[in-house]
Amino acid sequence: MLIKTSVGIELGTKDLRIAVVRTTLGKLQLVQSFVISNFRDLTPEEQKNAVSGFVKKHKIPSTRVFLSIPRDQGVVRQIELPVEVKDKLKATIELQLETLCPWPVEEVYWDFSVDSAKTSKVLVVTVAFIPRATLDPWVQFFRSSRLPLTGASLSALGCAHGATALWTDQTPVIVIDCEPNYVEGSLIQNGRVASITIQGTDTSGHAKTIIERLITSGRVTSPGSARLIAYGGAVTSLEGVDSVPLPIEKAKTAGLDRFGAIASAMLGLKRTGFDCNLIPRALRHRRSQLQLIPTYVLVGLTALLGFAFLAREPYQMSSYAYNIEQEIEKIAPEVGEVAAQETELNALSEKYRVLLGHFKNRDQNLEALRELARVLPSTAWLSNYSYQEGNLTLSGFADSASEIQKVLEDSSEFKDVQFTTSVVRESNGKDRFVLKAALEVGK
To answer: Residues 352-382, buried b or exposed e (16+ Cβ, 10 A)?
Structure first.
């Protein structure tokens, strides 16, 4: 899913802390965080009313709700197994339950997780146990308070999961949970978690002692580079302790005192080697698929609208093309008839143009002959005469060829009178000439 929302609940010594975390395209954001002060001092009915009131007032989602229970109410074991048993890990652990669990197996809920990022030949498996008598009342309580639980974990594992999910490098992380009557510390390093709890009200002193013991027992080579996270109801009593900021948007506004609830909410958003869920599958709250039907319907309608929008233009073009083809088929016979008539008309027009040219040339030819008969001297004799498109060619004999050229030039009917060949003087005293001229009326 592109957007996921998860709710984390942490049970403190006195307070109940709630955090709503959302991931959008992999980006984490703290949406809401609340504290119900002195929750443990309330009666069961008052506790129920307080939680229900917060759910209703702040519209807390109830799809993914994870509970963090104090570490001392359960047991956490970490064992090493050969990588060859990875495919039958659950059966292998079930054979060792009686040696791992301090309670009768039938009286507990248990779960395990394994660090899948390990590439060595050894699997580090984390196994968590909690008595049914401890967890069942809280499952029933939050179900009746309109926050049915999807999962539950012990605080040390929840913090280890949250720290591993938020920081993916190998830097050691020390988490200190400061409650009014005890301090719990956890060291998360190389896929392992180690926890220490000290009872008492000396929060500052106990926190210092726990940090020193964790660094020593965990053999932290660079204590100054380790990340330190301090939270809880009594965290304000610590002096000189600076917690690292959480890589979550808007987390600074909530304060680090709610890291336990934030880490619990991370159980619904990411997977790590510490995500043990102590609530059996049969008791886990799951979203009803029927609730998603309206969403699926809306998505389907949106997809259909998008498809219709994309298909609209091609459909319209196809429809328009079909209509145009129908109209073309209707008028095709008439267009064919008009085309045939146009062809026939063009042929007639060409015949008319040719005939008109003949008539016009005939008239001009007669005019040319009449003018020649008028202007040529009686001593001239024409041996050849031709006329074509307003131009005429004359050849013959005359006493003076230049005289023939002059009389033609002086005529108003001729122009551009020129000899086409040289004038030849014959033995009989006559000039042989060839002239061409153009008719004025031909223009």
So the answer is: eeeeeeeeeeeebbeebeebbeebbeeebee
